[in-house]
Amino acid sequence: AQTVTQSQPEMSVQEAETVTLSCTYDTSESDYYLFWYKQPPSRQMILVIRQEAYKQQNATENRFSVNFQKAAKSFSLKISDSQLGDAAMYFCAYKKANSKLTFGKGITLSVRP
Amino acid sequence: EAGVTQSPTHLIKTRGQQATLRCSPISGHTSVYWYQQALGLGLQFLLWYDEGEERNRGNFPPRFSGRQFPNYSSELNVNALELEDSALYLCASSDPRGGNYGYTFGSGTRLTVV
User: Fold this and answer.
1) Number of Cβ within a 10 Å radius of residue B66
2) What is the mean pLDDT of chain B?
3) Would you place residue B64 in the very low, low, confident or very high pLDDT band (cuts 50, 70, 90)?
4) Nearest-neighbour CA in chain B from A29: distance (Å)
5) B60 touches A: beta carbon within 8 Å
6) pLDDT class of A56 with cuts at 50, 70, 90
7) What's the structural domain count of chain A?
């Protein structure tokens, strides 16, 4: 079974600084997809960024980027120029073809003004 | 375009009762997924429906059941409610490409069992 591990339950970052959220996963598959979701206090899960395992290039979306290390099964999220609105719970998730999304337990990110 | 809608927003039930939660996917999405988010436990997969059929089921007892209607909306039923069923229930949908581009989530139903 695939598992997703987010070992840090909480992190804090100063506004305008950069923060990196860690995620590791376990799989025997070679083709799969990885995601980071954000869940603000409104509870709605929002897709932040997506990475396809067969692509070596790290995905980027504006201030959000990932460091995908396939051999190490690591998928970290970097948030640059942190803003107050980035404060939320962040979930790392894994999916292989024809299967469901499997989530980590999440990390609570706070942003200090 | 309307997002994934869930109803009700909040639901309070007594232990032993039944709860029915509803979900309408994004237009064009054929798959619906249900997750339970209990405090401190992350998102636990419950059920996956596609084209009216149950495709996969998480490690939950049979009193958790559901269905998908011809218009792709879905219902989650929880029978014989227990206190530990109190949680946020999230519904998500994906397009016919199988969710490889991610799921779109609703805002959830907060179920409280007293």
Assistant:
1) 22
2) 94
3) very high
4) 15
5) no
6) confident
7) 1
CB distance B33–A97 less than 8 Å? no
CATH of residue A59's domain is 2.60.40.10
pLDDT of res. B97:
73
Residue in A46, A91, A97 nearest the CB of B98: A97
Size of interface A-B (CB pairs under 8 A): 51
Task: Map tokens 């404060």 to a residue.
Answer: A87
Q: What average pLDDT score do residues B44-57 get?
A: 94
- pLDDT band of B99, cuts 50, 70, 90: confident
Interface contact A95, partner B, CB < 8 A: yes
Write phi, then psi, for B60 (nearest 5 degrees).
Answer: -125, 155
Q: How far apart are CA B93 and CA A4, in angstroms?
A: 21
Domain range holding A86?
Answer: 3-112
Per-residue pLDDT, B57: 96
For the record, the structure tokens of B13 come out as: 């039930």
CATH, range B5-98: 2.60.40.10
Of A27-31, B16-20, B22-26, B57-61, least confident by mean pLDDT is A27-31
Residue among A37, A43, A50 whose CB faces B101 most closely:
A50
Q: What are B98's two structure tokens?
A: 């199988």
Q: How far apart are CA B94 and CA B55, in angstroms?
A: 13
Average pLDDT over residues A18-27: 97
**A98 at B interface, C-beta within 8 A:** yes
Structure token pair of residue B105 = 């989530």
Whether residue A97 lies within 8 A of chain B, CB to CB, comes out as yes
Domain spans in chain B, listed from the N-terminal domain onward: 5-98
Is residue B33 within 8 angstroms of chain A, CB to CB?
yes
